[in-house]
Design goal:
Largest sheet: 5 strands, mixed
Helix content: 40-55%
Structural class: alpha/beta
Radius of gyration: 25 Å
Distance between the termini: 24 Å
Length: 303
């Protein structure tokens, strides 16, 4: 189960669809938001996690933001979020969970992925969700851990598998195009003039000519700006897009190296990173996407 902020709630719907169709999940792996859902499922608390996420609104998100005023490398400490998750399920050793579970983080000191298969569940989750610059990194020994999605946004190769198991991927970083400003419609100068005249507002002839000339100049400038794609991207937007491109390419690489039997995919721009107030909608989208992917798999395999 991949990384992608609030889009990771689609993992809940995907799991529900798998189980509704009689599939048994024998092991699970997750990264970033996928690590939260993987951990909750492996602990047998997915239903409770679902109910909790459905109660999340923007006010609760703000209350969970424990601002990190003493550090220059992150905005949020992340302790409150983990405290909220522990209300759903107490911290447990990963190796004691109901099924094998593997969670992924990225070690920025040694530039390598770190796979948690044992130890504190919430320490692993906290490391895996540490979005750079947003969450404070997690130090474990000589490692400084950040979001697993930086190196491995779809951890297919670490799932523990038996010979007859099928590999299912819920990919929430599907390739798509960023939104740009649409080509603007011309200013309706004649319509404005007609409206003014109909309302009996005095409008000298000389002003009509000036207004038409101004409208043409404004239309020209707006059209030139719309065609200049560089102007449609802010500084923050540029940084976000570079990160998105990295995650998309790493996801494609993971899919090529470890092709899944079932691949459900949600476009990366389907929902913003913090759209947790759309939990019900995202969960349902995850179910529908997995339903479609399973239909294709079962059809191609004569099931």
């Amino acid at each position: 189960m991949g990384s992608g902020g609030a889009r990771g709630l689609a993992h809940i719907g995907a799991i529900e669809e798998l189980e509704a169709r009689g599939y048994t999940i024998s092991s699970i792996a997750g990264c970033s938001m996928g690590s939260i859902i993987a951990g909750m499922y492996a602990a047998g608390q997915l239903k409770e996690a679902r109910e909790w996420f459905l109660q999340v609104d923007k006010q609760l998100i703000l209350r969970m933001m424990d601002i990190n005023v003493l550090s220059g490398n992150s905005l949020v400490k992340g302790k409150r979020i983990i405290a909220e998750l522990e209300k759903i399920v107490p911290d447990r050793p990963i190796e004691s969970l109901n099924i094998p579970c593997a969670l992924v983080a990225s070690d920025m000191i040694h530039t390598e992925e770190v796979i948690f298969r044992e130890g504190s569940l919430f320490e692993a989750i906290r490391a895996s969700i540490s979005i750079p610059l947003f969450f404070q990194p997690v130090q474990i020994g000589d490692r400084l851990l950040i979001d697993g999605g930086i190196l491995n946004p779809l951890p297919l190769h670490i799932v523990q598998r038996n010979e007859d198991d099928i590999l299912v991927a819920m990919d929430i970083s599907g390739k798509d195009c960023m939104e740009v400003e649409p080509i603007p419609e011309p200013i309706d100068v004649e319509g404005r003039l007609t409206e003014l005249k109909a309302r009996g507002i005095p409008f000298p002839k000389s002003w009509e000519l000036q207004l038409r000339q101004l409208g043409r100049r404004v239309d020209k400038v707006r059209l030139e700006r719309a065609k200049d794609l560089g102007r449609s991207v802010s500084f923050a937007g540029m940084v976000d897009r570079m990160s998105d491109m990295q995650i998309q390419q790493n996801t494609l690489l993971a899919l090529r190296l470890t092709p899944p039997d079932v691949h459900a995919v949600m476009p990366q721009y389907a929902y913003p990173t913090f759209a947790f107030d759309k939990a019900e909608e995202i969960i349902e989208q995850g179910r529908l996407l997995m339903c479609k992917a399973l239909d294709n798999y079962e059809k191609s395999n004569g099931i």
